[in-house]
Amino acid sequence: MQYRAEIDGLRALAVLPVILFHAGFEWFGGGFVGVDVFFVISGYLITNIIISEMAEGNFSIVNFYERRARRILPALFFVIAFSIPFAWFWLVPSDLKDFGQSLVAVSTFSSNILFWRESGYFDTVAELKPLLHTWSLAVEEQYYVIFPIFLMLAWRLGVKWVVNLLIIIFLLSLTLAQWGSYNSPFAAFFLLPTRGWELLVGVFAAFYLKYNAHLKSHTVNQMLSLLGFGMIVYSIIAFDKTTPFPSLYALIPTIGTGLLILCAVPKTFIHNLLSVKFIVGIGLISYSAYLWHQPLLAFARHRLSGEVPELLLIVLCLASLVMAWFSWRFIEKPFRYKSILGRKFIFVFSSVGLSFLLIIGLWLNVTDGGLVYYAPEKQKALSHFINANDYTKRQHREIKLKRFNKTNNKKDILIIGDSHSEDLANMVFEAELNNTYDFSTFYISNSCGVLMIDREKLKIKPTIHCNQETLFSNNALLSQMLIADEIWVISKWQNDNLKYMSQSLENILSVNKNLRVFGTKYFGSINSKWYIDNDLALWENTFLQEGDRDMFRQTAIINNSLLEITKLLGIKFVNTQGLICKRNDFCSNYVDINIISYDGSHLTPHGAKVLGHKLKNLLLESPD
Predict the structure, then answer these.
(1) Beta pairing, strands 486-490 & 411-417
(2) Residue 179 above 80 pLDDT?
(3) Pick from 160, 166, 262: which is nearest to 217 by CA?
(4) What is the full DSSP assignment across 59-121?
(5) How far apart are CA 181 and CA 473, in angstroms?
(6) Which one has a higher pLDDT value, 30 or 121?
(7) Nearest-CA neighbor of 299 among 22, 600, 588?
(8) Mean pLDDT, residues 153-174
(9) Of 59, 182, 294, 394, which cross-links 467 as Cys (Cβ 3.0–4.6 Å)?
(10) How many CB atoms lie within 10 A of CB 478?
């Protein structure tokens, strides 16, 4: 295959926004689309190789997987081997156990499935996962297993049939992605069935260029390549974490990438731009840069309790490029030379490396992230971190949205909210409130807050794209809202959606007048190794990180705003954080020397028990 320097330049355009997005720079709110650009490039390059060899009758599935192993695994192993010691020394047992699960997932090419089941890509806690970014590698690896086999089976039908079948798969995958982005956003984001169509954009580009020449019109190539470049840049700047993805919105960066592959030919402006030596150089190290950036950022956030100064973020981004050059020069390149390292060595090396990751990951799981090696008194406190997410999900599954039983003489409570509704559900169980109340929950699985806005009726068009905008079209929810004795609403209540809160709560009141709103909560971040290596009882006397001070201030502002809104509307308000915190500017993450929040916001089992009993007392004091 003829080398195209502009493709490496396109890789640079893909990787830099991803790095800057994960670093948290606002101008790159849509930088995650760089992954979509990578998907299209991969689809194009892999297909170009396969169909060229198939057309010549010399395609070998063994050769294909050997090339993939040489390309992907050495640098991946190197970065993970570098990360393991930092994980061991810097992560608390719960995070280390999560890291172990990531190692197991990487070794079995299932990282996307793991992170889909754990949480959302845009959750704050996701920033702390050193191997979060390997989800995209898993998508490609799963594609590498399926796609060559599909081509081998379908090739005998002829190219026309192959393309027609791929078009059908493309349309099905895109339709599923559009539906899933609004109805099951985490699954849609992480899984191959909803990402496959993006790879197929590159596949179609490869088929077109295999059997057709580039467009001959210089003017058309110039215009279409500029359009494609503009579509990618627009996505990077205009999209953010609230953009439903990978819905039809994802057509913008992926089609843009396809246009660059097809039309960024020599003598066009974009070809000249992407072929600049410096940009091509970044493209050459883009894979290693992608591998390095997330561990560097995540470990820094762990070390600094989540708050990394902007200057240090810039240094870490640059460091990821420096480390990328090193691993490209001394790891990636040598492994590509068959004359130096033969096929047998590559397969043995790959098998040993994957087995090593699997064994280390399983060991970290069995030992609860090394918890068994701590002193007994510290094990007790740290144990509240372990499986905190599993605990939340286990309890929450028992009270999903259901029909109320009007014959059991219990008070029917409908809980509506985001991940904080899971905390509220756990509080209910820990305080045994479910013995006197019948609970049903409607869980909103993203970070936009509870927006109960009937857009058609009220002609309101929020600027953020959230599936909650159409909650009033959910008949099952509406029917339970109508018959519930009381509705409890809880959310993270971010500043950017507070302006919709008054209208949203008025809408709920129009359906059911008995409404109780719960405020947001924050208990302070934890300097993980500090409290392990020192007396846990001294926690309240430690100095606050500046990020903690900001979070406490923001939490107080949000809760005060909610209090004003609920007073005006005559709605009952519960200051969730105020159940145990007497001050707005500080709240300890310890009660009875036990941790109450595993991430500063969401509750451990002990936290749910403490707040649950406080809530029970509040309800007994003022049941109405």
Answers:
(1) parallel
(2) yes
(3) 262
(4) --HHHHHHHHHHHHHHHHHHHHHHHHHHHHHHS-HHHHHHHHHHHHHHHTT-HHHHHHHH--T
(5) 17
(6) 30
(7) 22
(8) 95
(9) 182
(10) 13
Q: What is the mean pLDDT of residues 496-502?
A: 68
Whether the predicted pLDDT of 597 surpasses 70: yes
Arch. (CATH architecture) of 380-621 = 3-Layer(aba) Sandwich (3.40)
- Place 599 in a pLDDT band, splitting at 50, 70 and 90: confident
Closest CA to 512 of 473, 484, 475: 484
Torsion sign over Cα 116, 147, 17, 310: positive
The predicted pLDDT at position 125 comes to 65
Residues 604, 384 contacting (CB under 8 angstroms): yes
What's the confidence (pLDDT) of residue 127? 80
Question: What are the sequence ranges of the domains in the chain?
Answer: 5-366, 380-621
Cα–Cα distance, 186 to 245 (Å, whole number): 9
Exposure string (b/e) for 2-19, b if CB count within 10 Å is 16 or more?
A: eebbbbbbbbbbbbbbbb
pLDDT given for residue 596 in this prediction = 81
* pLDDT tens digits along 17-27: 999 999 988 88
User: Within 13 Å and on the Cβ side, how many CA atoms surround 106?
Assistant: 30
- Asked if 370 contacts 584 with a C-beta cutoff of 8 angstroms, the reply is no
390: its two tokens: 């599993």
Cα 71 from Cα 105, distance rounded (Å): 19
Are residues 46 and 326 in contact, defined by beta-carbon separation less than 8 angstroms? no
Query: Which pair of structure tokens corresponds to residue 242?
Result: 């609230």
DSSP state of 400: S
Of 308, 368, 394, nearest to 99 by C-alpha is 368
Q: Where would I find the H helices in 367-454? A: 376-382, 388-396, 419-430
